[in-house]
Amino acid sequence: METITYKIYSSVSQLPHSWDVVALENAFLQTSYLKVLEESAPTNMQCFYIGIFENQNLIGAALAQYLDLNKLESFGERDKCLKTYTRNLVFKNFASHALFLGNNMITGQNAYIFNKEIDFEKIGRILRQCAHEITAYFKKKHIKIHIVSFKDFYKNCAVELKKTAFSDTYEFNTQPNMIFELKPEWSANDDYVAALSKKYRDQYKRAHKKSEGIQTRELFLGDIILMESRIYELYYHVAKNAPFNTFFLAKNHFSCFKKHCCDRFILIGYFLDNHLVGFHTLLLNGETLETYFLGYDEQIQKEKMLYLNMLYNMIQFGIENQFKKIIFGRTALEIKSSVGAEPVMMSGFIYHNNKLIDTYFDKIFPRLEPTLVWQQRHPFK
Question: pTM above the 0.70 mark?
Fold first, then answer.
């Protein structure tokens, strides 16, 4: 470790000139996206950018996010039950100041990237050292970090990290990441539809029939600025009805995203009688298509099967633009599996800075997780 050092930055303008060269393979760690976070992060979030050096040469980039859950008006309004009430009470009192090494806003392994092979022992030690330094920074500001989470690692990485730096840290698995692998033989959307079994081909046809009267079109920066209030209203409706939230986007988030990421950020609007009733967003991340936030009018969604049609439209975009896979994220697992996405388990590591609580974290944490009951679908022949 003597040649490996790191530096924590609080502003994108401070980052080394070679940052984007190192972060080339992950759009969520490039400066264009980090500027989006800096200018339009949720009001309860503060971001830190970590440069990792070998002999003073930048070789890695990482992201950390601090969240103040005391500033959150709601953790989620969908599930009204004793377990949800208890969970919210615990979070407010014992986990309201949280530090994430990684990106708490998205699903996927986006905590760090290197431009060369680094063994997992060094990676784990760097992440833990950064967590300690940021925790100490907040302590000087009289803010006590309650929980520290190292977020979203695929199985192979989690196994290696568990062997060394995280050997004594609680490993958790939440809902799987739904990933859609696009078949190389699909050159057009009709190829995807033909690959579906009759039951799911009928579902596809039924959804398209229901969507009659809905027009879709890509919204550009001027459009997004013009419709930003309506876009946010549709997003917020979906977000507040999620089972659990740790943040809400800023109202200028989507226009800021389009301004900085330009053609790599796609926002598709869904219109009924020239009125915006839904939207979905995508980020082009190399050969991977990343789904981002969406929103819709609940009544129109039910009548027009809007959400299902959004999934089909994302798949069509992926096929026509020759992406290899689509990251659909953690929500709505069953309906995403019905269009062909497969669950991929991801792990994280978490500890509480109260040693007594941390000792029993393996018993406490599972009791706070929302109960997940779903049936995986298998739509292909």
Answer: yes
